[in-house]
Amino acid sequence: MNKRKRHKFKPFWTENTLKLSQHLWINDDVIHKRSKGSWFSVNEQISINDIDSPEIIFKSNEKKEVNRLTVIPNKKVNGLLKTRKIRLYPNDEEKRILKEWMRASTWTYNRALELINSGESKGITHLKRLCVNKDSVDARISSVPYDVRGDAVIDLLNAIKINENKRFEMKKRKTRCFVVQARKWNTKGGKKYKFLKHIETKEPKPEVEHAVRVKLDRLNRFWMCVPVPLETKTRMSNGILSIDPGSHTFLTCYNPRGSVIEIGNNDIQKIRDIQDRCFKYQSIIDTSLGPENKRKRHRLRNKILKTYKRIRNMIDDSHRKAAKYLCEHHSQILIPDFRTKDMVNKKQRRINKETTKRLISWSHRKFLYFLRHKAREYGTNIVECTEEYTSKTCGHCGRLNDKSSKDFRCDHCDLFVDRDFNGARNILLKHLTENNGFLHPNDC
């Protein structure tokens, strides 16, 4: 087993950081604006004083910088695609067929992986002969269209090709999905594919020009993932933003022009209250034994499923609205490279059980993926950075404070400020310090 190398991080504060800090507002008088972003709150603090904030210029090559795109408002970008996810509402017969195709696709994928691991050739023709052709599988698998099973082999070979440089261990696929080529979806699919066009959706299906992936998620919802041309959108304003993710407050966003935005401040308790219902239902299921309680258990399991669907929809709603707003109003966004998996690992974590549950519920890593997706549409530049010592360091003098509290108080310079606000500001300072950034025009 390969042991992950532990990085040794040191406090980032230097004389250059102090010089940069003098140009960024930190504790001016502010006015508060509070609004609702749906079920979650959005709090904005705006400085009363005029902030003559210079533009931030980066001199670094920024290896992790992504999403550089020349934006032409409301234009389709040739050659670039994005995936559109559409919810499907199949009837009972359509569900049966879709699940049967997914089982066959997953079986074919895993069977081909077993053959490759046992030393068989990676040639596509050879693998199809061993695990796709009718004479090599049972009747239940062979009843599924040949191309659906054949595309599972192609999926595996593509995954192996991508994985060769990363050297990850290939594992069996658990995701329930299958691929349908565009030619089959549109005209030449025949009777077996015809029903796909008629599955009910709440929104019109786009024109299919590329392979479509149909999948079933953990909440028993069917989706179709359709590649469509990327269409750029117009940003309402430009500017830089640094984000500090948290457990109590989902995102704390610092703008050097004189504003701080808190998204989801203490709203995670609403999610936790709903989750408690699921724990209550599960407790009843565990104590309701015997065949006479079979219907009761079935009813409670359905309640649990519906409750988790509601939670997932609430979290997705906050992700979508936050990502759209941030990309729509900023040209550059600094965001930490989330290590939630390491933070919640029982052997490595330094946080308590309740904080761990809140972090898992917010799904920060999933938000980062969606932010990248939205950034491509608005031409926003996402810069992934590190956040070590940003919450412990005084943003005014650079002294460390290991005390854990909602408010940050420095005993040396008497700075008193919200801890998340201080962390978001220090993320910007840390990145500029490590990458030799400077402030323009006063400091160039």
From TrEMBL:
GO terms for biological process: DNA recombination; transposition. InterPro entries: Cas12f1-like_TNB (IPR010095), Recombinase/Transposase-rel (IPR051491), Transposase (IPR001959), Transposase_put_HTH (IPR021027). One of its GO terms (molecular function) is metal ion binding. It comes from the Eukaryota. Residues 225-345 form the Probable transposase IS891/IS1136/IS1341 domain. Residues 364-427 form the Cas12f1-like TNB domain. Residues 81-116 form the Transposase putative helix-turn-helix domain. Keywords: DNA recombination, DNA-binding, Metal-binding, Transposition, Zinc. In the C-terminal section; belongs to the transposase 35 family. This is 26461_t:CDS:1. It comes from Dentiscutata erythropus.
